[in-house]
UniProtKB/TrEMBL annotation:
Source organism superkingdom: Bacteria
Domain (2Fe-2S ferredoxin-type): residue spans on this chain: 1-76
Lineage start: Bacteria, Pseudomonadati, Pseudomonadota, Alphaproteobacteria, Sphingomonadales
Shown residues in whole-protein numbering: 1 to 147 of 184
Protein name: Isoquinoline 1-oxidoreductase subunit alpha
Species in which this protein is naturally found: Edaphosphingomonas haloaromaticamans
A single GO molecular function term of this UniProt record: metal ion binding
Amino acid sequence: MTRFTVNGQPVHYRMDPETPLLWALRDASNLTGTKYGCGAGLCGACTVHLDGAAVRSCQVPIGSIEGSFVTTIEALSRDRSHPVQQAWVAESVPQCGYCQSGIIMAVAAMLEKNPNPSDADIDAEITNICRCGTYPRIRRAIRHAAR
Ligand code: FES
């Protein structure tokens, strides 16, 4: 049994310890805001926070994070929208929307440690893939959230 905390709640998953965190979140906890894209750590659709850092949950076996704290898009903000989510709305970022929760999680983690990122910082940190090509709006929204 693997125990850790998801969105402030203790979880005990009776699953193979090699199960990727992505599938434990989606299938056992019904937290479907975290998306499956590539399953190979490349696209970032599955990004969540693990002890405050952005990670690609398809690459994290649940057995490796005993005692850790996981946050998903569903709990990024407890009351009103997180400033990054507000910026996403203000700049009308999403097109199909599928990848956006992962990108928002990656951006929120970046701004937590670097509140005023340069273009180079953004390029280095935000490597998520958006098939609709919303990258210019993503960049505007990051600037908006960083204000
Ligand atoms: Fe995890 Fe693509 S689904 S990086």
